[in-house]
Amino acid sequence: MAKTIEVTQSSLPDFEEYANEIFDLWDSKMITNMGIKHRSLELKLLDYLNVKNLTLFSNGHLALEAIIAAFDLHGEVITTPYTFVSTTHAITRNGLTPVFCDINLEDFTMDVDCLEKLITKQTCAIIPVHVYGNVCNVEKIDQIAKKHNIKVIYDAAHSFGVTYKGKGIGSFGDASMFSFHATKVFNTIEGGAVAFKDSELQKTLNGLKNFGITGTETVEYIGGNAKMNEFQAAMGICNLRHIDVNILKRKEIFERYIHNLKDVKGIILPIIQEGVTSNYSYFPVIFKEFTKNRDEIFELLKLNNINSRKYFYPLTSDFSCYKYDSERTPNAKFISERVLTLPLYPSLTMLDVDRICNIILNVGENY
Ligand SMILES: *Cc1c(COP(=O)(O)O)cnc(C)c1O
Fold first, then answer.
1. How far apart are CA 88 and CA 262, in angstroms?
2. What is the largest CA-CA distance in the chain?
3. 312: cis peptide before it, omega within 30°?
4. What Å distances lie between residue 75 and 40, 95, 99, 125, 205, CA to CA?
5. Ligand 1 lined by 317 (C-beta under 6 Å)
6. What's the first-to-final CA gap in the chain, in angstroms?
7. Contacting residues for 33 by C-beta, under 8 A, at least 6 apart
8. Most Cβ neighbours (<10 Å): which of 18, 67, 91, 306?
9. Cα distance between residue 307 and residue 65, in whole Å
10. Atom of ligand 1 at shortest distance to CA of 183?
11. 341 with 282: CB under 8 angstroms?
């Protein structure tokens, strides 16, 4: 039996590289509380992500919770159900009410044609998701938000390194959250960041991730603890050295999938949008009118020791803790029931990509 192929694999530097990076921590004995690695990574990311302001967090979820809290919002927040539960949890855990907007069928981001109808007097913010690294319709969202005077916070967890029209993806909206979780394109083991427009927010965000402490004898916010430690930051510094090579490897794998599967009838392959430099974070395939349905393909791949993922299924709105009516977001429901993300990570070999594709090709019908 062929070896198991996982859907993803964490990118790690060579052991020696990481060991060298953390070496001086044994001298300083300062292993957390915004030390030298933390400061260094923050500066490098400001540059790499091409954003004006940025602050690091222990993970992406707490980064999102913190930026929502920083804006001191009340009422309803419009988001999409086609995302990781974290997006909606961050809204709800801030005492806000999520309102689900449908997605479009082209890139699976928020359907801006449905957005404005959902805005009420209670709406205080929009939290769209750059899902799979696909860029939301930032122009239209910006226009609608300005008209109604509401905040825009992007869940950019999938979008590390993505640019749109030459600008870093984190420079759109009022703020963007990035996740540096082990399974993401760039990782700090666990970790995350908020990029934001208004420099005034720096103090609030730093307070929110460090108990509201603003000086040795002053506490100005009721903050929690969401600090990135020095070992996480050191991992980030190492991984950042290899990010461009890793994204290039992802691109080659992505293109191999496209090349192999482009003539298969009844499936929809991911697209790279115009004006976007992608990070090739995922390879979602929609089994629309294929000879077998999504669940059958999932099982067939599993029989061949290949782990794919129904990402995103179920919809956030269908989980027992939310239980919204998913009929209200028919596109999200449709995609969620047919999507399968195929294995994609820098060290996946072309031989493995071909093996995965052949399983699909063998049951499919070609043009
Ligand atoms: C990963 C992810 C998050 C949460 O990030 P963590 O770093 O795991 O806390 C939030 N939203 C989306 C869309 C994600 O994929």
1. 34
2. 71
3. yes
4. 38, 8, 10, 9, 21
5. no
6. 31
7. 210, 227
8. 67
9. 31
10. 1
11. yes
Residue 219 burial (CB count, 10 A): 13
pLDDT tens per residue across span 100-139: 999 999 999 999 999 999 999 999 999 999 999 999 999 9
SS3 361: helix
- What's the pLDDT tens digit per position in 13-72? 999 999 999 999 999 999 999 999 999 999 999 999 999 999 999 999 999 999 999 999
Distance 59 CA to ligand 1 centre (A): 8
- C-alpha 364/C-alpha 328 separation (Å) is 32
What is the Å distance from ligand 1's center to 289 Cα?
Answer: 31
CA dist 295 and 318 (Å) reads: 18
Tell me how far apart the alpha carbons of residues 249 and 243 are, in angstroms, rounded to a whole number: 10
Q: Which one-letter amino acid corresponds to residue 302?
A: K
Q: Whose CA is nearest to atom 5 of ligand 1?
A: 60
3-state DSSP helix/strand/coil % of the chain, to nearest 5: 40, 20, 45
Amino acid at 337: E
| Token duo for residue 96 | 């806000």
Q: What is the DSSP string of 262-277?
A: TTBTTEE---PPTTEE
